[in-house]
Design a protein that fits this description.
The chain contains 17 helices and 13 strands. The protein is of the alpha+beta class. The strands form four sheets. A five-stranded antiparallel beta sheet has the order 2-1-9-8-7, sandwiched between helices. A four-stranded antiparallel beta sheet has the order 11-12-10-13. It is globular. The N terminus and C terminus are likely disordered.
């Protein structure tokens, strides 16, 4: 009897060592030490009980100790998988101001949905989807596990509502609906997501679904998620403000955004939370103060509250450091009419001006427009994605624009456009972005514009932005100049 007990104990201890070895690479020595101490205590208890195992009473104590060991072992996977990693990055330059385990491949959980949103915004920008387009709900989408909106097979939901459900409720059924609208299947969409990740520079990320539900092959890193967050902000400023949505009403139910930093942290305006048991509590957050924007990523929080507190600390330290390195400045204007927009502080409302009225552009007759003149315009406007398309066109009624500034950094221009879109109450939604490069004293600067208004809309947008303490002026279309507005700018 005693021999069999010792044989069983030996096998259990061997299994214990193998189990610890399997889950030992958490990068958290303190947790490992604590776990080993716990197991050592259990093992010592079993050895003590073995001395009394020759009696009936001793055998009951031994079995109790064995049960305690098994209980500890069954709780190990949850703690072992909840690994910590963090990054804080300057979104303008990509400079990392803090990192810890930044390149460890971990489970992203619902941070996966950030890429689903990126793909959706891209489809909207290319005209493959429309915000009011109704999408069918498949059996697979309806069968996704919570959290979800509760969609039923055969239902139809608009792209807008699916996105809002994904952003606020982190709805897995909505994520699948969006995925199936852009690919033959969710699996095919996940392959497209992974390919897009590679193009963005996310070299250690692989996706297997659109929602972030558990899959052992679906992993990413804190650094890759920071890159994705920055790409979402800079590539789609006209849609990014959706991620600051705090509440979404759908079919009589109100869904609150899980990202509590939106209400608690100054300058926070997105992006996304995530949780599965294997990952712990994850968060990608973005906040902007002055002309500085930071992207923060935390993996493996023990609770949502402790994760948020830690993110707040990291962002505070990041802003303190980045402000010393890159003080917030507004560059001086190049020439009129830009000085109308930039010759005043952003701390007070700016008067609405119309550029062509305030500083009339020189008359260029049709005969005066030469090949050389058009080529020079193309050189100045190097940000346009289709310089070859420059030509003299009659600008339509909806080609009025607004300009919110000119900046020494293209990324600063992008950030300002994002901020304007986030605070303009939806009036900038769907407008085309134009970041126009020009030269002053041999140095480049970038005009930040939004295009696609009629005159009334442009004036209303500037009035709205002035109330939000933005400088802004209306740019009237001039029929005598080449139409060089970027139709598909990546900014």
């Amino acid at each position: 009897m005693i021999r069999r007990i010792f044989y069983t104990l030996t096998r259990l201890m061997k299994s214990e060592r193998n189990f610890i070895r399997k889950f030992s690479n958490t990068g958290k020595p303190l947790v490992q030490s604590s776990r080993r101490a716990t197991l050592k205590g259990v093992s010592d208890k079993i050895r003590m009980e073995l001395r009394a195992a020759t009696t009936r009473r001793g055998m009951s104590h031994f079995l109790g100790g064995l049960l305690l060991l098994l209980t500890v072992l069954t709780t190990l996977p949850e703690t072992a998988h909840a690994r910590y990693a963090a990054v804080v990055m300057d979104s303008r330059t990509g400079e990392v101001v803090y990192s810890r385990n930044a390149d460890d491949r971990l489970y992203p959980a619902s941070l996966t949905k950030i890429m689903t949103l990126y793909m959706t915004f891209d489809a909207l920008q290319r005209g493959k989807l429309r915000l009011d387009q109704k999408l069918p709900v498949s059996a697979r989408a309806a069968g996704q596990t919570p959290t979800k909106l509760g969609l039923k097979k055969g239902d139809r939901i608009t792209v807008r509502d699916a996105m809002f459900g994904l952003i606020t409720k982190s709805a897995n059924d909505a994520a699948t609906v969006l995925a199936e609208s852009m690919a033959e299947s969710e699996a095919a969409f996940a392959r497209d997501m992974t390919e897009k990740a590679r193009r963005l520079g996310m070299r250690r990320t692989s996706f297997r679904n659109a929602s972030g539900l558990p899959n052992r092959h679906q992993k990413s890193t804190a650094r890759d998620m920071a890159v994705l967050g920055a790409a979402l902000i800079h590539d789609f400023p006209q849609y990014y403000h959706f991620l600051s949505l705090e509440k979404f009403d759908y079919k009589g139910k109100a869904f609150k955004n899980h990202n509590n930093l939106l209400k608690k942290y100054k300058g926070a305006d997105g992006i996304k939370t995530g949780y599965i048991r294997a990952s712990g509590f994850n968060l990608v957050a973005s906040a902007k103060r002055g002309s500085n924007r930071l992207i923060g990523v935390v993996f493996g929080g023990r609770t949502a509250k402790s994760r948020d507190t830690h993110m707040t600390t990291l962002l505070d330290k990041g802003f303190s450091r980045i402000e010393k390195m890159h003080p917030s400045v507004v560059p001086l204007p190049f020439d009129k009419p830009l000085q109308i927009a930039l010759g005043q502080s952003h701390s007070k409302p700016a008067p609405i001006q119309v550029a062509s009225a305030a500083a009339p552009l020189p008359v260029v007759t049709k005969s005066a427009v030469t090949h050389s003149h058009i080529r020079n315009v193309a050189v100045v406007n190097t940000i346009s994605s289709k310089p070859a398309a420059l030509k003299m066109d009659r600008i339509e009624r909806t080609n009025w624009a607004i300009q919110i500034g000119a900046f020494s950094q293209m990324t600063t221009a992008r950030n300002q456009l994002h901020k304007a879109a986030a605070q303009a109450g939806g009036i900038l939604e769907g407008r085309r972005v134009n970041i126009e490069k020009a030269i002053s004293d041999g140095k480049p600067f970038y005009r930040a514009q939004l295009v696609g208004f009629d005159e009334a809309e442009a004036r209303e947008a500037c009035s709205n932005l002035a109330e939000q303490r933005f400088s802004c002026f209306v740019v009237a279309p001039d029929l005598r100049l080449p139409n060089y507005i970027a139709q598909n700018s990546n900014s």
